[in-house]
Amino acid sequence: MQDIRWRAFWFGFVLIFISLVIWAMDNAITALSVFAVGSVLYLISHLYWLHRLLKWFKNPELAFMPVGLGAWEEVFAAIYHEQRLHNRSQTQLTSALDRFRHAASALPDGVVLLNGNDQIEWCNPKAEKQLGLSMKTDAGQQISYLVRHTSFIEYLQAQHYPEPIKLESLRQPGTTLEIQIVPFGLNQKLLLCRDISQLEKLEHMRRDFIANVSHELRTPLTVVGGFIETLIDMDGAIPDSTRGYFAMMQEQTGRMRHLIEDLLTLSQLENAQTMPEDSEIDVVALLHMVMHEGQSLSNGKHTLTLEADSTLGLIGATEELHSAFGNLVSNAIRYTPEGGEIHIFWKSRGPYGIFGVRDNGIGIDQKHIDRLTERFYRVDRSRSRETGGTGLGLSIVKHILTRHQARLEIESDLGNGSTFSAVFPKERLTHKQTALFQ
Prior knowledge:
This protein has helices at about 1-25, 30-60, 70-105, 125-130, 135-140, 145, 150-155, 195-235, 245-270, 285-300, 320-335, 365-370, 380-385, 395-405; strands at about 110-115, 120-125, 165-170, 175-185, 190-195, 280, 305-310, 310-315, 340-350, 350-360, 405-415, 415-425, 430.
């Protein structure tokens, strides 16, 4: 660019110099004529090479790049260099895109690329088969026009995709699909579709097996527990030297019965095909019942307090929510040392309703919190055995809350206690005109 400016300067300087010499030797008219002709020729040459450049841009092939003269030689050389770099980059991008599409086509899962308007930009053959799409005819179409499951449309419109959803395929009966949307780039989305039919069958078999085994074990354990209890209550039936062993057997039999009851409850929740039978719940009365049960479990070893907003009602299945709330309270009691405080509350937080249990117990390390709702997961196995926990309580809570479109929030500080909160959406809440109860 510096050379181009200097060339233009020296051309103008030389033309002016020649014109001044002619003026000195002849007259001003001749000098001005020479200056005008030189300027016009200079302008015509620029217009010519500009025309050649525009003509080349209509078909930018390197083989037909003009060479140019003077300043235009450098211009065309610079354009030639940039065009070569552009062609090389374009070739690399095209090659990378072809490799991506080839790799994505070989994936065992369906992949659909959506733009900011949820229109299909590309999909692999597996997605075409699983979702009934056609890249030839459906490119540019709204995905919601082609995958018309109500749950999928609600999931897509929610603009929040923390968890995948499951759909029963309408095109392939007996096929269950798991769909996950992953946002990326500028409002773009990647839809991942996976056939989980076999996993669902195995999971169903597992649930049936646990339910059947638990059901079969309940009767003999009840019989054994009954005989042990009868022997303990009979005077002289058991020597004093062995009475401690029978007490231990009774305790462990009761623990097994509790475990089986929790397994059956969890199995029923997992296998439930229908939503809970909703009714308006007297939350204050329910919490009084839960608090009374907690006091019985604590046996005076803890201080339990209750704060409930009686203007805030809840719609749901009373028995299921009683079980969920009771599990949260019993967990707090089990993991709070003697003399600790447990606060139960029911209040609103913005549009949500919050049932919570706050304690000043042993607390939980942050690394365990994400796994607490897994069945049989224990932070401290030895303490769980001492307190009689089954490791299923929070799994039951999570399933019940999910059936009520609610979620479980856990806040904990190791050594300073924990707060477990069930967060209910506004659709589950009712409001009354009564005073606050504490």
